[in-house]
Design goal:
- The chain is an alpha/beta fold.
- The chain has three domains: 4-159 and 286-356, FAD/NAD(P)-binding domain (3-Layer(bba) Sandwich), CATH 3.50.50; 173-283, FAD/NAD(P)-binding domain, CATH 3.50.50; 367-471, FAD/NAD-linked reductase, C-terminal dimerisation domain (Enolase-like, domain 1, 2-Layer Sandwich), CATH 3.30.390.30.
- Helices cover 31% and strands 27% of the residues.
- Strands 1, 2, 5, 6, 7, 8 and 19 form a seven-stranded mixed sheet that branches.
- The longest helix is centred in the first third of the chain and has 26 residues, at 89-114.
- The protein starts with a strand and ends in a 7-residue tail after the last helix.
- The model has no long low-confidence stretch (mean pLDDT 96).
- Bound molecules: flavin-adenine dinucleotide and 1,4-dihydronicotinamide adenine dinucleotide (NAI).
Length: 478
């Protein structure tokens, strides 16, 4: 037998590749095995880099740029007649592909730099013995090899959940990866599921001219978000983007037609029919464990198909750990990264903790939506008496100068201690602004602490400070 690694990481998504790099930094001998193939080549980076966070943000950027020029150019004195402004979907797609290529090659360069051995192939458990674990790896050419390691970290991620009523049909009934790869703008786009993927990808195609209908099973939109913020967000989102949302629907079936897809569903007790060019099914994701041969090492999945772990990502088998989308908790890239770093550090004898209460959520729509910590309803249910500060971007000078004076910052604080319990933002650059709120929660700051910190003027971040002042009823600019 050849080299015995200290840790074999299965999966090079944001969880796995980050864990591999951190473990190598800490002096462990690391191998990372990943099956993703793009254009016939290895493409580490997982869902996030290949068909998730990064390509979606590339298309969101292109479509927002187009929409802004079209709608707001003349406000700035930029003379663009509608007829003179056009876009090329092919160029947008190749720009997206270029960015993905640069980043996935970047992961391979980082592996080299940190001396992580990278193997392109699909891994499965073969055996377990006193020395650790033997994995079998099937490479894309069909060749098998074995890898021996003292510990294994499972970071195999997730895949789109399929719907029996809307089975996949190439280029007609597609998942999020298909929706990111459309070569033409469909005149009508249907989306089942108005979750994060539904609204982000619906925004992309709607900004480029598609009439988008989101069909959502739940009676409320973003049921887990702060109600006021979800309602403000939807009001602003539907004002700025041509999205139609039908809540509380029940899908009967989706069937391909000569030139698209026919949907039959029930909405408010009525049978309805909708014809669309393309249908996207975005009803959540399921953990990826198929083919890992977990039973060979005594591991079993939970009822969701995920790998059960404790709060430190240890599985029921000593020496096997699991992180990211394949375990409980939010399916977010930065959550997977946090867990990856924490597991690598635990393997090296450190005692890090991951606090889910400090994991931010961001939805990259226009305006952006971001939050961290408790929403108002959840905080009240948890028994807190609250003081709440709000500040509208309409009163923020930088937002006015940008022509983006919509939405608000809402800061929720404990009435007795003033500790900030949650921050919710709908507005420009909410994805960036939330970082200060995460730091505030992580350092257990009070609203008074944050209100006393100087914020550059003019900046969007002043809206956070003003909302903190608002907790004490002393906003200055409204
Ligand atoms: P993954 O990224 O899924 O990586 C798992 C890797 O393991 C894959 O490369 C897979 O090929 C490999 N693998 C699986 N089984 C095996 C095996 N047996 N052998 C070898 N390799 C294997 N999250 C955010 O935080 N922000 C966003 O903006 C965001 N946008 C998203 C947009 C879309 C359209 C989608 C679909 C997701 C988005 N997400 C976003 C979610 C994010 O992509 C995931 O939470 C994240 O990628 C999970 O990371 P992971 O490392 O757990 O798994
Ligand atoms: P999601 O859980 O956000 O939304 C799925 C939606 O589909 C829910 O609102 C659900 O009620 C609805 N639904 C389920 N079954 C249905 C049915 N039969 N008919 C109609 N509606 C139905 O999941 P989504 O959007 O698929 O995204 C998966 C995950 O990817 C997210 O939970 C998130 O963790 C991650 N993601 C994160 C992003 C970000 O951070 N910006 C962007 C995109 C994805």
């Amino acid at each position: 037998m050849g080299e015995v690694y200290d840790v074999a990481v299965i999966g090079a998504g944001p969880g796995g590749y980050t864990a591999a790099l951190r473990a190598a930094q800490l002096g462990l001998r690391v191998v990372c095995i990943d099956a993703w193939t793009r254009n016939g080549l290895p493409s580490p980076g997982g869902t996030c880099l290949n068909v998730g966070c990064i390509p979606s943000k590339a298309l969101l950027e292109s479509s927002a740029f187009y929409q802004r020029l079209r709608r707001e150019g003349s406000d700035h004195g930029i003379q663009l007649q509608d007829s003179a402004l056009s876009f090329d979907t092919g160029v947008m797609q190749s720009r997206k592909e270029r960015i993905v290529g640069q980043l996935t090659r970047g992961v391979q360069a980082l592996f080299k730099k940190q001396q992580v051995t990278f193997i392109h192939g699909r891994a499965a458990f073969q055996a377990r013995d006193d020395g650790g674990f033997t994995l079998q790896v099937l490479d894309p050419s069909g060749a098998l090899s074995t890898v021996k390691s003292r510990q294994v970290l499972l970071a195999t991620g997730s895949e789109p959940r399929a719907l029996a009523a809307a089975p996949w049909v190439e280029s007609r009934i597609v998942d999020s990866a298909g929706a990111l790869a459309l070569s033409q703008v469909p005149a009508r786009l249907g989306i089942i599921g108005a979750g994060v993927i539904g609204v982000e990808l619906g925004s992309v195609w709607s900004r480029l001219g598609s009439r988008v209908t989101l069909l959502e099973a739940q009676p409320t939109w973003l049921p887990n978000a702060d109600r006021e913020v979800a309602e403000t967000a939807w009001r602003e989102l539907s004002r700025q983007t041509d999205l139609t949302l039908e809540l509380g629907i029940s899908l009967h079936r989706a069937q391909p037609t000569a030139d698209g897809v026919r949907l039959q569903y029930v909405h408010e007790g009525q049978d309805k029919q909708l014809d669309v060019g393309v249908l996207v099914v975005a009803v959540g994701r399921v953990p990826c464990t198929a083919g890992l041969e977990l039973e060979r090492v005594g591991l079993a999945c939970d009822e969701r198909g995920g790998i059960p772990v404790d709060e430190n990502c240890r599985t029921a088998v000593a020496g096997i750990w699991a992180i990211g989308d394949v375990v409980r908790g939010p399916m977010l890239a930065h959550k997977a990264e946090e867990e990856g770093v924490a597991v690598a550090e635990r393997m090296a004898g450190q005692q890090p903790l991951v606090d889910f209460g400090h994991i931010p959520w961001v939805i990259y729509t226009e305006p952006e939506i971001a939050w961290v910590g408790l929403g108002e309803e959840a905080a009240r249910q948890a028994g807190y008496a609250l003081r709440i500060g709000r500040f509208p971007f309409a009163a923020n000078a930088r937002a006015r100068a940008r022509g983006a004076a919509r939405g608000l910052v809402k800061v929720i604080a404990c009435a007795s201690t003033d500790r900030i319990l949650g921050v919710h933002i709908v507005g420009p650059e909410a994805s960036e602004l939330i970082a200060e709120a995460v730091a505030a929660l992580a350092f257990k700051a009070s609203s008074e602490d944050m209100a006393r910190i100087p914020h550059a003027h003019p900046s969007l971040a002043e809206a956070f400070r003003e909302a903190c002042l608002g907790v004490d009823g002393r906003t200055l600019n409204v």
